[in-house]
Amino acid sequence: MNKKSIPYGQIIKWVIAIGVPALLYFIIPQSDAVSPEMRKFFVVTAWAILTWAMNLMPVYISGLLLTIGAILWGVAPAAVVLSPWTGSVVWLSLGGLTLSVIFEKSGLMQRIAYFFIVKTGGSYKGIVTGIVLSGVVVALLVPNMTGRVALYCALCYGIYHALKIKNNSNTGAGIMFAGFVAAIAPAWLYLSASENLQLVNSYLKETGHAVSWMDYFISNFPVMLIWTLVLLVMVRILFKQDVQIDGKEYFVEKYNELGKMKPKEIKFLVVLVLLVIAMIFTNIDAGWLFSLAVIACYLPGVQVAEVEDLKSVNFPMVFFVAATMSIGSMSNAVGVADLVSSIVMPLLQNVGNLGMTAFAWLTGVITDMMMTPLAGMAAFSPLFIDIASKLGLSIVGTTFSFVWGVEQLFFPYEWALFLILFSYDVFDMKKAIKFCTTRTVLSIIFLILIIFPYWSLTGFLK
Questions:
Q1: Where are the transmembrane segments (predicted)?
Q2: H or E element: which one contains 438?
Q3: What percent of the chain has pLDDT over 70?
């Protein structure tokens, strides 16, 4: 009987994932500033981050082990480790992922995307432009980035395959990158469109600095719409058409096949519109509203979703979100924020809001190289809130600038959402790095020259 041997590379990864945390346990000295619980926190966090970064275990299993291990080892009480489940962000993630599945099954996704592509001409430039512009609408209706990335990757790969575009061409890569831009960039248009923004806003809420949906919209929609258009132009310049395609007839045919809006689509659209109205005009947390929207989809007389649809929901991602948030909860409980603040604050005494904004962005970019965006935000958002508060600087501006940095990357491994795109094998690593690096460089320029002045004008830097 043949026994399956473990690949040598996998063994090395496990040695790193176990060895580095073990080394930290013995290197970090116990003192008045570093308690035994804090030392344990660094160990379990390092293990989780390395495990996620090297993809050693399914995120559900590693997140579950982090949660149970932290409780059993006494890093923090169970009430602290499991506290994310009592907040709204986890439920927002669950609701958003479920609504994404229902959105795709309803046919609204294809209808919106094909409408924009047909209106923009169906050429290569028209396809890229139509896909990105459709994201402005889809981001409002599908309040989950993970779900939107999955939807747009599938849609764009279908277009790439149907038009028989050759592998690793600029044309194929441009269409796929347009889908990623459509899923990610408009996430900053609306507070409800990103689980990342909702996560940091939940931390701001704990300190009394939460941002309302409308305040965020006023201070971000205009500049982030410009940012979305900047990325559209970037894709069209970096990946100029190198394959002749004629997609107009294809998209017109596909759009016509959808016919008139079906009752199911109309009812689901009404549910989504009511969800948006509730987010704008009520003080109910978005997480609870998303859950109510999912429930509404199954009510008698509405019934726009089937029980089978639930099988397509990415439930493991919900546990991953909770696990990453528990890192932030434990960090606060063991006093990591106070320790790091005491070290960093002397260096930031006279930087001002602009300097703090740039520092937060840079920290976010570096953090994303070492851990997942969610884990980074869970671990460092409370820290930046604390530092900005003590220095009398903008807590809101600093925190959102950090998120802006966390979402930038140079290599595919840095963000699971980009890995989804990369896994379709339409373009090579060179094109991936070209897209990511250009986007990252543009992000800091845009932050300093456009976003920061506009935030100052609207009072968002409160």
A1: 6-28, 40-73, 85-103, 124-143, 149-165, 172-193, 213-239, 266-282, 317-345, 351-371, 410-427, 439-457
A2: helix 429-446
A3: 98
